[in-house]
């Protein structure tokens, strides 16, 4: 019998693997959190599948999401990334990734880790939703509104409430697997 998955999962194996093994599972590791932060910021205005298909290319282009290396990128590196047709070539998003990396490090220094900073919003406990249908799953919530507002105040770019909500879903702060999905409880 075929596993029941969330409504958004297509037959694309990349999507299936991402859904089954990553999406909605709690992430506490700063390296992975930084990777998702970068990927979500590049996703703004595009489909997540577009990003997933280029994820390995992003990993290579952005030094395996080493936050310190990304924070130290120069104008020459920006120009190099703009020539890389295996990633999304958007100057604003590339420059935001560098700026956001510097802010990510500031948060690490202030809170001990980015994980401690982001998970404190939910007292280190994932929010488990009980949605049955696509129309019930929100694009934003008061939590994503607050985090987006706080990150904007710090200086983060390309992180509106919708992008933040997708980030929270990706890193498991919010488990929005629908109740009929085999991943809902695990």
TrEMBL record:
Pfam families referenced in this protein's UniProt entry, alphabetically = Adenine_glyco
Instruction: Please write the reaction equations for the catalytic activity of this protein.
Output: Hydrolysis of alkylated DNA, releasing 3-methyladenine
Q: GO MF terms on file?
A: DNA-3-methyladenine glycosylase activity; metal ion binding
Q: Which residues are involved in binding Zn(2+)?
A: 6, 19, 177, 181
Superkingdom as given in the UniProt entry? Bacteria
Keyword set for this entry? DNA damage, DNA repair, Hydrolase, Metal-binding, Zinc
The UniProt entry, under InterPro entries, shows:
Adenine_glyco, DNA-3mA_glycosylase, DNA_glycosylase, Tag
Its Gene Ontology biological processes? base-excision repair
Which EC number(s) are documented for this chain? 3.2.2.20
**Function in brief:** Hydrolysis of the deoxyribose N-glycosidic bond to excise 3-methyladenine from the damaged DNA polymer formed by alkylation lesions.
Name of the protein:
DNA-3-methyladenine glycosylase I
Q: Which organism is it from?
A: Faecalibacter rhinopitheci
């Amino acid at each position: 019998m075929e596993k029941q998955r969330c409504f958004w999962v297509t037959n694309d194996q990349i999507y299936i693997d991402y859904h089954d093994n990553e999406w909605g599972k709690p992430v506490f590791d700063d390296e992975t959190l930084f990777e998702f932060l970068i990927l979500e910021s590049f996703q703004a205005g595009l489909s997540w599948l577009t990003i997933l298909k280029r994820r390995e290319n992003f990993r290579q282009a952005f030094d395996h999401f080493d936050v310190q290396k990304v924070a130290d990128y120069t104008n020459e590196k920006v120009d190099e990334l703009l020539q890389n047709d295996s990633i999304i070539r958007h100057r604003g998003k590339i420059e935001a990734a560098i700026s956001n990396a510097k802010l990510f490090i500031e948060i690490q220094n202030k809170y001990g880790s980015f994980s401690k900073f982001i998970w404190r919003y939910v007292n280190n406990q994932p929010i488990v939703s009980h949605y049955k249908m696509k129309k019930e799953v929100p694009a934003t919530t008061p939590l994503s509104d607050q985090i987006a507002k706080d990150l904007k105040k710090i200086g983060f770019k390309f992180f509106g409430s919708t992008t933040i909500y997708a980030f929270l879903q990706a890193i498991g702060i919010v488990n929005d697997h629908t109740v009929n999905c085999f991943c809902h409880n695990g």
